[in-house]
Amino acid sequence: MDQSDIDQSIVVTGISTSKSDTNLIKNTATLQKCQLCGVLLNLDSNLNEASLKQLTTTTYCQDDLDTVFSGNIVDPEMELSISPIGTGYNNEIERSTNTYFEDDIDLSSKNLEPDFKKQIPPRNFYLCPTTINIVDSTSNNQSTINTDQTVDWHSRISSITALFDMISSTTNIDHPLCEECADRVVNELDTQCIIADEEQKKYQALIKRLKSQMPDEEEIKNLEKELAALDSEEKKLRTQLEISEKEENDLIEMKNKLSQEETNLINEEQNLMLEYSNLKRQLVKLEENYESLENQHKNAKFHFNRLSSVNVLNAAFHIWHSGPFGTINYFRLGCMPDDKVEWDEINAGLGQANLLLYCLAKKIKLEFQRFRLVPYGSFSYIQVIENDPNYSGFKIGDECNMYEIKGKKYFLMPDKKFDKGMIAFLDCIKQLEERIKTKDKQFSLPYRINGDKLEDKNSSYSVKFFSNSYEHWTKALKFMLTNLKWSLAWLTSQKNNTSN
Fold first, then answer.
1. CA-CA distance, 375 to 360, in Å (whole number)?
2. Any residues with CB less than 8 A from the CB of 398 and at least 6 apart, and which?
3. Edge-to-edge strand list for the sheet holding 371-374
């Protein structure tokens, strides 16, 4: 129980008789517990019936307590006995069934520090005599009475508590203890004493054996000689040790030099690694740029090959057919009785044909004889550059039109220059065929040209408009465009072969 709990349990409400004083201190004493098992204890009747003077005799001031706690007890009156005959139970059976004890008490594992070392009351707590205020129940006056004249319950309880603390300070066991715990402690101490006695006997036997094994004088002399030899050997070893230490110092110095060189090499390696990293980064960037340029080159090469495979003449001059008409760039050439084509469309188509033949001749480096093509859109013509007996109607400087001006004589009386232009155009196509045959002997046009006619297997059609039917003239123009397309296809194949 803490001191504060004891202080709060005391309430004096008047001047009590000596009998009530005795009962109060007995009730207070029952609050003591066993320090091991916690069982409530009743103090011995001699201690309960002790007078305040006897208790105060055993109460010390702080300076005296320091002497007591140190174990130097000089007052024989402090050797009081405590008989834990009361345990707070009616019989032994109740105590044995309601109290739990450990099988073995290990004094080394118990925290046996005394309570007074844990909580030390103030210095004036143990100063004797002590005074308390007693309030008379019959009057409202409050007076201060000295403990020599009245009973001081606070001092009595404090003295009992200090008494147990002093008893606990002499040993490693806290007091008070119940009878059963005290027996267990005694048995444990007896066991320790037996073990200590056995150890003492073993030590004494060891001492006797060592004394019996003491060497004689001859053995001592031999040992001295051996010791001298060992001393000599020690000197030699010390000399060797000094040499080894010197070598060690030299090695340490060399090690330091090598460590310094290692540090320099590490720094140089780090610098080289840094430089290597920079160069590696630059290399990566250059490789990325190279890959990018290579991809661009591949892309450009792909487009170049694709564009190279494309024939400009095929794209620029689309020759096809629309019913009975042959078409070039969707311009129809010819005229049918029930479907008369405007001269503007025919002139434009013939101008495209003139330009196509001009481009083909330029591609194969052909210089036409007798005639020169002049592509001029819808007003293209062919100029005579030399005379030829086979072409008696053509004179140098003549311009043979490949167009007809629309007028009142629509398709009735066309100009004869138009027929000359168509004949000269067929002669230029025939010269192109002959030039191609010099490079490819197997080449031949699908429709053979003979003067102003284009011959099929069983028939021939003239390109002259004058004195010719619409159907024959239209079919002759269609055959003429077919020969041009055939020549264009040969030139395209030759270009593809050259690319491959």
1. 13
2. 383, 384, 420
3. 371-374, 381-384, 399-401
Query: Residue 57 in contact with residue 18, Cβ under 8 Å?
Result: no
Three-state DSSP at 325 gives strand
- Note the pLDDT tens digit of each residue in 277-335: 999 999 999 999 999 999 999 999 999 988 877 778 888 889 999 989 999 999 999 98
Cα three-residue angle 402-406-313, rounded to 5 degrees: 35
Partners of 42 in the β-ladder = 86
> Count of CB atoms within 10 A of residue 93's CB?
9
> What is the pTM (predicted TM-score) of this model?
0.43
Distances (CA, A) of 122 to 3, 218, 327, 380, 441: 11, 73, 132, 138, 140
φ, ψ of residue 216 in degrees (nearest 5): -90, -175
Dihedral sign, Cα of residue 347, residue 349, residue 352, residue 357: negative
352 Cα distance to chain centroid: 72
Residues 255 and 248: their CA atoms lie apart, in Å, by: 10
The DSSP bridge pattern shows strands 319-322 and 325-328 to be antiparallel
Residues 126/59, Cβ–Cβ less than 8 Å = yes
* Strand, helix or coil for residue 349: helix
